[in-house]
Design a protein that fits this description.
The protein has about 90 residues and is mainly α. About 50% of the residues lie in helices and about 0% in strands. The protein has a domain of about 35 residues. The longest helix has 18 residues.
């Protein structure tokens, strides 16, 4: 059976045809890539002596922190760390 170049309904005929686009650079599926990246980030943070702290805040406080961090051109994480350090310095 001859295949027509415009016929894309029978994909099995075009299985080995090269497609345009960026080539796959990582052999792992996206889910595994994310897990590996997260594990590596945790190792880097640990090596730098950083500890992870998580907490929940209201969406208004979250937006206020984001806006303040953007205005100071720093990350939200760095802003929160600065605020906590200033507060702890006051209480001592």
């Amino acid at each position: 059976m001859a295949k027509s170049e415009t016929d894309r309904t029978t994909l099995d005929l075009f299985e080995y045809e090269k497609r345009p686009g960026r080539p796959k650079t990582n052999p792992l599926p996206r889910e595994m890539q994310l897990k590996v990246n997260k594990r590596n980030q945790i190792k880097r943070d640990k090596a730098r002596g950083l500890k992870r702290v998580e907490f929940k805040v209201s969406s208004q406080l979250y937006q206020a922190l984001s806006d303040m961090a953007d205005a100071q051109n720093i990350s939200r994480s760095a802003l929160i760390e600065t605020i906590l350090q200033e507060r702890l310095a006051i209480d001592r």
